[in-house]
Specification:
By secondary structure, the chain is α+β, with helices and mostly antiparallel strands. Helix content is about 35%, strand content about 10%. The protein has a five-stranded antiparallel β-sheet with strand order 2-1-3-5-4.
Length: about 210
């Protein structure tokens, strides 16, 4: 009899896998994700929801969600090359965070280019998130509200990407600064401890 070599994935491995899923869903580098995590920790809401809410409001992400580009990378290229307008003003930063009420549109001269037409063809089969509205005839879309957890368009199968949380008492007290190596924290830290490492505060959504 051969010994059963199957091993249950450690908590650290689960967190690492979900963190990588989040990174690749929005095509972020490690450093970019760390910056978003630091910003999410300063918000008043649940840190995990604040994190994904910011990522969902990125301009390149919303261009793709609205169906103006076939893929996220194609949407990013459209933004960088100046084909996208926000409230009729040119914005060429893919990381620009939209505010509720702002309108995204495609430049008139760019409406017939291949990436936009391919995005419209593929976008017909995509569900539009409830925090967006789109006018595909005029290639305009609007952010109606801040994305909230029940509106998110995806759920992970086992552990929801990340839920980086702190207790209410922790939020009332100034905590330690976020460790720049937070995303590489080892399993020796207890989840939820105030070590300043983001990876140490990960838990599954819906757990007590």
């Amino acid at each position: 009899m051969h010994p059963d070599r199957r091993q249950t994935a450690s908590e650290f491995k689960k967190r690492l896998v979900e963190k990588q899923r989040l990174r690749y869903s929005y095509w972020l580098s490690e450093e970019q994700l760390r910056r978003y995590v630091r910003r999410a920790f300063t918000r008043r809401g649940q840190t995990g929801d604040e994190l994904v809410g910011m990522l969902e409001r990125r301009l390149d992400n919303l261009v793709c969600r609205l169906g103006f580009a076939p893929t996220l990378l194609s949407a990013r290229q459209l933004v960088v090359h100046g084909h996208i307008r926000v409230d009729n003003a040119k914005v060429d930063k893919p990381s620009y965070l939209l505010k509720p009420g702002e309108v995204i549109s495609v430049k008139d001269q760019s409406k017939s280019i291949d990436p936009v037409q391919l995005g419209l063809a593929r976008g017909a089969s995509r569900a539009l998130p409830p925090y967006l509205e789109v006018d595909k005839d005029n290639l305009r879309g609007k952010l109606l509200a801040l994305p909230a957890e029940p509106m998110f368009h995806f759920r992970w199968k086992t552990v929801w990407w990340w839920s980086i949380t702190r207790s209410t008492s922790d939020r009332r007290e100034p905590g330690p600064p976020l460790n720049p190596m937070a995303l590489k924290a080892g399993p020796s830290h207890a989840p939820g401890s105030r070590c300043g490492a983001a990876a140490c505060s990960v838990r599954a959504f819906g757990s007590p």
